[in-house]
Design the sequence.
């Protein structure tokens, strides 16, 4: 049973548009929420991460929004570029340091 | 740069064979992990190790075992491969439990 539910499964966005990926969790012991980016033929790589003491974290065009009471967090990709086309995974972990991953979202940015 | 290497990119094995997947990291990381990646299921943790000769089960350990005799090397063993173990296998390492995990490129295993 997946501990982190991720949606949508895939999305297509025009260059310059905003991509939004949502994740939800149930385990209140989770206190670390990273997002990983994976290009075809490569392993995932850490993109950005947040802890529940803040509601938002921004790094360049990538922003995580976190809603602790709703147990939801999301990734926003602003001004999406063709080079952002990849699969994105949300994840969560608690004090056992084991990451639970979402099912992944394939993002396609059309030029 | 951290480098995590996996012994094979593609592997084809027959049902019942014993399969070894090797992973090596070059950054003296304490923790190493084995995941399998399947469409629609994301990454699922098979086993992880937080020290040499130490191992802990992940979410789906059935049918797998691991070995960590040296800090830099973590092996995943399929004792008797089955077709439902056809998957992409990813190895990762991290400096400590709280740190970023660095992934290898993956091994696509097909069991026929």
Sequence:
């Amino acid at each position: 049973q997946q501990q982190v539910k991720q949606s949508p499964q895939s999305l297509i966005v025009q260059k310059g548009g905003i991509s939004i990926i949502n994740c939800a969790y149930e385990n209140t012991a989770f206190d670390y929420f990273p997002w990983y980016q994976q290009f075809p033929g490569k392993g995932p790589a850490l993109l950005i991460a947040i802890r529940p003491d803040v509601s938002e974290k921004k790094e360049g065009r990538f922003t995580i929004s976190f809603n602790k009471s709703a147990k939801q967090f999301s990734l926003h990709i602003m001004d999406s570029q063709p080079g952002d086309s990849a699969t994105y995974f949300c994840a969560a972990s608690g004090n056992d340091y084991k990451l639970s991953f979402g099912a992944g979202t394939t993002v396609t940015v059309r030029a | 740069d951290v480098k995590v290497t996996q012994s094979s990119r593609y592997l084809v094995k027959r049902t019942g064979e014993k399969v070894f997947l090797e992973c090596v990291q070059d950054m003296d990381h304490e923790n190493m992990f084995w995941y399998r990646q399947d469409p629609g299921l994301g990454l699922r943790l098979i086993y992880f190790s937080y020290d040499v000769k130490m191992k802990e089960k992940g979410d789906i350990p059935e049918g797998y075992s691991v070995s960590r005799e040296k800090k830099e090397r973590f092996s995943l063993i399929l004792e008797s491969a089955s077709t439902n173990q056809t998957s992409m296998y990813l190895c990762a390492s991290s400096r400590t439990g709280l740190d970023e995990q660095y992934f290898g490129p993956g091994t696509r295993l097909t069991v026929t």
